[in-house]
Amino acid sequence: MTEYIPYAGPSVSELEVAYVAEAARDAWYRGAYTFTRRFEQSFADYVGVRHAIAVPHCTSALHLALLALGIKEGDEVIVPECSWIASAAIITYVGAQPVFADIDPTTWCISPESIERLVTPKTRAVIPVGLYGLPADMPAIRKIAEKFKIHVIEDAAQSLGGKHSGKMSGSAADVAAFSFGGTKTLTTGEGGMFVTDDEAIFERAQFLRDHGRSRANYKNFLNTEVAYKYRMSDLQAAFGLAQLERIDELLAKKRRIFEWYRMRLGDVPGLALNAEPPEFVNSYWMTTVVLDPSIGLTTADVRSRFEEYGLDVRPFFHPMSSLPAFAGYPKVEEAQKGNSVAYSISPRAFNLPSALELSEAQVDRVCDLLKTFLKTAGRSSKLPSPSAIPDWPMTARAKVRSVG
Fold this sequence. Notes:
The protein has 13 helices and 14 strands. It is an alpha/beta fold and about 400 residues long.
């Protein structure tokens, strides 16, 4: 088999193993939720907020955010075109309508100008997304939110460790949500975190995530509303706590991987990599490439060619207004016509392998292969021979699988 190089994957040390073993042994009876509480407090301290709630996934954190803020049927919530569907799906969970905003051509995050154009009397919130490691322009978004008196819910699923104007991603919104899925820099296998500085929002979210019972009536099993079961287990929290204690190491690995790519691809004509504007820190969750239209290669072209060599390359997010899941929703056709940046970038962009255990030699292979594709683009649709790639194993087609 050709050496398989995944697009994402974790870094696991003996610390995670030890903490999970301790939780398996001791986190029961009076020790129940010990690791969950430690993880929540440590995470809040790291992000720089007062409160954190560990939940099963980022989707549940976003859902809780909308519920706690009172978003309901008839309301509109603005989201960026390019993100994972969870950023918009949760809006429909509460009966509200997603309104898709265009993205910035350099950062690929939601465009503040697009947000301002889309605000109506029905707009109750905006959900900026930190894409592939770079936080959205939160200072600009906060100004718009204050002008129109709407809530800001930061989807920081991909941008843990990123910063904007000196503030940690997740610290400048009314509520923020993080993901600890298997592909993320900090993982618990599955999991997420709800964070806020607002005491009332925190108490409401705590109540809603535990089937509608308050912390004061926890042992009375007195449910005063029909709510949800959004809890994280101590075993997951133990793993997450160990990951959080290693967060500087994990983020340094991500930055090093990006630097390896930048050194090899940064001066290649017609190719753009993740941006890091002044006053921002990119956590580089996924090294991402956008090809110039003149090259003549699409995301699908590049992925199919990489797969012949066992490289797992991930597509850039599709514009959400193009997804069959949102066909027929209000304002979808308007988004399809108006969000030209998202519709231009998405078909010619992709994520390169960015797993935490990636080696520099593997990055060499990825870059050599990509450069070969770019050289042959427009001249022939035939795949270059594996012998054209230095040190690439001459074997049959690899079976490509996903991580996380």
